[in-house]
Predict the 3D structure of the following.
Amino acid sequence: MTTPPLIAPATPADAGEILTVQRAAYVTEAQHYSAPFLPPLTETLDEILAVLAGPTTVLVARAGHRLVGSARALISEGTAHVGRLAVAPDQQGRGIGTLLLTAVEQACADRASRFALYTGAASQGNLRLYRRHGYEIVGNRPDDNGISLAMLEKRLVSPPRTDA
């Protein structure tokens, strides 16, 4: 049995690896939608460094010394907006996406009563993952490339703590 990856907060030193894994992970989405300019593919190293310096929660998954995945969430008005969930292509299907999603939810649960995210409306694997974790499709909208995105939400059963 292999050891599960370690999930930890990202640091600026992780930015280059985050960019590499993110680009590798989103290439299949770009091919599926014939859209080479998806935001995760055009994001720059400087933009990732800016995200890491801001209020966004960014987590990484490491298998040994290798960064194999990342995810982020930005909280606004009680909603954690989850994004850029990415797992290295050769590591997909091993539960790393589930670990990252669960960890980012746990990291934000004391400040958010709702989680929201977008994924391609025709990305069945992504939709299955999110549905398994309690997300429901609440709508659709096109992105800047005209790709139909499914908007998903998950509400927490108990409200976030306010005693901080």
